Amino acid sequence: MTAHPTNADLRTALAQLLCLSGDWSRALTQLKSWLALARGQLRTIAASIDDSVTAQIVARCTEVESGGRMVDAILTNTLLPQMSRQLLSAGTRDEKYRHLPITFEQDAFQCLFTA
């Protein structure tokens, strides 16, 4: 079996499997790696994930029925749309972002790119 450490999709699948097995710290490490690899523009942006995000993802992934699939759902349906809207908007203004703090506040995931 050949390793593909730069394949973001494989990291997502691995994170889901790690969640299903209960290995939360390794799953979060894979998610952080995925954040860095998933989008070309994000490679130049430093992401910081607050402990509140980690706690919320872990809380949502403990359900037996959904487990690791929740990680993908959280990223795909919540965080990525927020990030995409901000990046597309910045592109129209020719802005370049360098930092992405991600937090969980007021019962919602929050991300706000900064220069």
Automatic annotation (TrEMBL):
The keyword Disulfide bond does not apply. Residues 42-94 form the Clp ATPase C-terminal domain. Keywords: ATP-binding, Nucleotide-binding. Transmembrane segments: none annotated. The keyword Nucleus does not apply. Pfam families: ClpB_D2-small. InterPro entries: Clp_ATPase_C, TPR-like_helical_dom_sf. GO terms for molecular function: ATP binding. This is Clp ATPase C-terminal domain-containing protein. It comes from Tenebrionibacter intestinalis.
